[in-house]
C-alpha cells in the first residue's frame, strides 16, 4: 500500500511537531527512529487520522485520513506503547471480540474469530482471564490480536516494545517483522527491532533527515548521538 | 468490580444477566426493609454461588474501610447507634449484592443485555431522545475497566511516596491520582479512537 506525505506540517500550540515532510513509501516493513520529540509519533498518528495535518496532504492506500478518518481506521490498526490503555473490555476474549462489534457477525462467529486471533499468538489459554492481570508482554500481544482480528491492511506501532523486557520485546518484534502479512510502520527506540525493517526513516527536529537501509541509518544515528 | 467473573456452574452464574440485574435491583430495595435478614439472604446467595461462605467473608472484609467511613462520622455526629447500624447494614448489603452480581456475570453478556433492554419496545423511545444503547453499554464497560487502572495508580503513587520517605495519605495522594487518571483518560480516548469507536 502506498503511503504518501505531501508537504505535511503539524503544529501544536505554536510548536512545530512536523515540518514540511514529503515522502512516498511502499515497503512492507517501515521503521521510524529518532530522539524524543523529533516528530516520529506525530508521523505515525497522521497515518490513521489521530493527528490532523496543519498543512499538506497525507494519503494511505489512496485514502486521506483527514477527510475519511473512518475508512482510514478500518484499514489501519494502531498499537500504542502502553498496553494498559489499549484494553477496553475486562477479559481477554471480550477485548478481542470488541473489535468486531458492528461487523455484522453472529455471536458464534465473533467468538470463533476472536479465539482464532488469540490462537495465532498462542495466548488462547488466557481467553477468560482478566486483561489487566496479564503481563506487559501478554497485554501487547493481546493488543496485536485485537487489531489483527479486524484484518487491517496496515499496522502502525508506536514504540510497541518500550515497556517490555528483552524476551517480550523479541516476541513482539518477531510478530511484527516476521509473522504478519500486513504492511507495518513501527516507531521505535529499539535498534534491534529497527534493524529488522526493510527501510528506516530517521527523524530530527520535526523533519525526516535520513531514509535508507537500516544498517546505514542506524550507524549514522549512533554516530550523531554518541 | 471489574472482571471478577470466574467460570462456575451455579444457578446464579447461569442466570440470564437481564433478569439477574432486575433481581439485584429488587433485592437491594427489599433488604432495606430488614437489613439483618437481608445480610443473611446475601450470605445464602453467596453460599449457593460459591459452595461455601469463604467468598462472602472475603468480600465483607474487603469493605471494612468503607464500613468504617460510613459508621464513624455518623457516630461522631451523635446519630443513635441503632440507626447507624441499620444504615451501614443496608449499604453493606447493597455492596455485597452488587459484587455478587459482577462475580457471577460475564461483562459481555451484561452489555448485550443492556443494549437489548434499551432496544426493547418499552425503552425504544429513549433512543429517539438521543440515548444510544451501544454508547451506554460502552460507558458501562469503560467504567468497569477503569477501576483496576485506578487501583494500579494508587499502588504506584503509594510506592513512589514511600520511596521518598513520605507517608501516603488520602490528601497527599489526591493530586497525583487526579493527574495520572487524566493522563490515562487522554491515552484511553486516543486508543478508543484508533479502534474505530465513535461515541
- Cα gyration radius of chain B (Å): 20 Å
Distance between the termini of chain A: 36 Å
What profile does the largest beta sheet of chain B have?
none
The proportion of residues in beta strands of chain B is under 5%
Strand content of chain A: 25-35%
Unreliable segments of chain A (pLDDT under 50, ≥5 consecutive)? none
Q: Which class do the helix and strand fractions of chain B yield?
A: mainly alpha
Strand arrangement across the biggest beta sheet of chain A: 5-6-7-3-8-9
The count of DSSP E runs of length 2 or more, i.e. the number of strands of chain A, is 9
Largest interface: A-B, 29 and 27 residues
Shape of chain B: globular
Spell out the helices and strands of chain A N to C.
EEEHEHEHHHEHEHEEH
Percent in helix of chain A = 25-40%
**Spans where pLDDT lies below 50 across 5 or more residues of chain B:** none
Please, could you describe this protein's structure?
- Chain A is α/β, with parallel strands linked by helices and 226 residues long.
- Chain A contains eight helices and nine strands.
- Chain A has helices spanning 40-46, 69-75, 92-98, 107-120, 136-148, 166-179, 191-195, 214-224; strands spanning 3-12, 15-25, 29-34, 55-60, 76-79, 154-158, 183-187, 199-204, 207-212.
- In chain A, the strands form two sheets. A six-stranded mixed beta sheet of chain A has the order 5-6-7-3-8-9, with helices on both faces.
- In chain A, helix 3 runs parallel beside helix 5 (136-148), helix 4 (107-120) packs across helix 5 and helix 5 (136-148) runs parallel beside helix 6.
- Chain A is globular, with a radius of gyration of 18 Å.
- Helices cover 77% and strands 0% of the residues of chain B.
- Chain B has ten helices and no strands.
- In chain B, helix 2 packs antiparallel against helix 6 and helix 9 packs across helix 10.
- The model of chain B has no long low-confidence stretch (mean pLDDT 83).
- Classes of the chains: A alpha/beta (226), B mainly alpha (199).
- Chains A and B meet through helix 2 and helix 3 of A and helix 9 and helix 10 of B.
Amino acid at each position: 500500500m502506498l503511503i504518501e506525505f505531501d508537504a505535511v506540517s503539524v503544529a501544536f500550540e505554536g510548536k512545530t511537531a512536523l515540518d514540511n515532510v514529503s515522502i512516498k513509501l511502499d515497503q512492507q516493513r517501515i521503521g521510524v527512529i529518532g530522539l524524543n520529540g523529533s516528530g516520529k509519533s506525530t508521523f505515525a498518528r497522521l497515518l490513521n487520522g489521530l493527528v490532523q495535518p496543519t498543512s499538506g496532504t497525507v494519503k494511505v492506500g489512496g485514502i486521506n485520513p483527514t477527510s475519511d478518518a473512518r475508512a482510514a481506521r478500518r484499514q489501519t490498526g494502531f498499537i500504542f506503547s502502553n498496553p494498559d490503555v489499549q484494553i477496553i473490555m475486562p477479559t481477554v476474549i471480550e477485548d478481542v471480540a470488541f473489535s468486531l462489534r458492528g461487523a455484522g457477525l453472529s455471536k458464534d462467529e465473533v467468538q470463533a474469530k476472536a479465539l482464532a486471533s488469540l490462537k495465532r499468538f498462542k495466548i488462547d489459554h488466557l481467553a477468560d482471564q482478566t486483561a489487566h492481570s496479564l503481563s506487559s508482554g501478554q497485554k501487547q500481544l493481546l493488543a496485536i490480536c485485537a487489531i489483527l482480528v479486524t484484518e487491517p491492511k496496515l499496522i502502525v506501532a508506536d514504540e510497541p516494545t518500550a515497556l517490555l523486557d528483552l524476551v517480550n520485546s523479541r516476541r513482539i518484534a518477531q510478530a511484527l517483522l516476521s509473522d504478519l502479512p500486513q504492511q507495518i510502520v513501527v516507531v521505535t527506540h529499539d535498534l534491534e527491532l529497527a534493524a529488522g525493517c526493510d527501510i528506516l526513516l530517521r527523524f530530527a527536529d520535526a523533519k525526516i533527515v535520513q531514509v535508507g537501509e537500516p544498517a546505514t541509518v542506524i550507524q549514522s544515528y549512533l554516530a550523531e548521538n554518541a | 468490580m471489574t472482571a471478577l467473573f470466574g467460570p462456575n456452574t451455579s444457578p446464579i452464574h447461569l442466570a440470564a444477566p437481564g433478569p439477574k440485574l432486575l433481581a439485584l435491583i429488587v433485592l437491594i430495595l427489599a433488604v432495606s426493609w430488614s437489613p439483618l435478614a437481608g445480610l443473611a439472604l446475601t450470605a445464602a446467595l453467596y453460599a449457593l454461588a460459591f459452595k461455601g461462605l469463604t467468598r462472602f467473608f472475603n468480600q465483607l472484609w474487603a469493605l471494612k474501610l468503607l464500613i468504617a467511613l460510613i459508621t464513624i462520622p455518623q457516630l461522631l455526629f451523635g446519630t443513635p447507634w441503632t440507626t447507624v447500624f441499620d444504615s451501614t447494614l443496608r449499604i453493606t448489603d447493597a455492596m455485597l449484592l452488587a459484587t455478587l452480581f459482577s462475580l457471577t456475570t460475564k461483562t459481555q453478556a451484561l452489555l448485550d443485555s443492556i443494549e437489548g433492554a434499551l432496544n426493547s419496545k418499552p425503552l425504544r423511545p429513549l433512543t429517539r431522545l438521543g440515548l444510544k444503547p451501544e454508547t451506554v453499554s460502552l460507558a458501562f464497560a469503560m467504567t468497569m475497566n477503569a477501576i483496576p487502572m485506578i487501583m494500579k495508580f494508587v499502588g504506584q503513587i503509594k510506592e513512589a511516596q514511600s520511596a521518598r520517605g513520605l507517608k501516603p495519605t488520602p490528601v497527599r495522594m489526591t493530586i497525583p491520582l487526579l493527574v495520572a487518571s487524566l493522563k490515562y483518560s487522554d491515552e484511553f480516548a486516543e486508543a478508543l479512537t484508533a479502534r474505530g469507536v465513535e461515541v
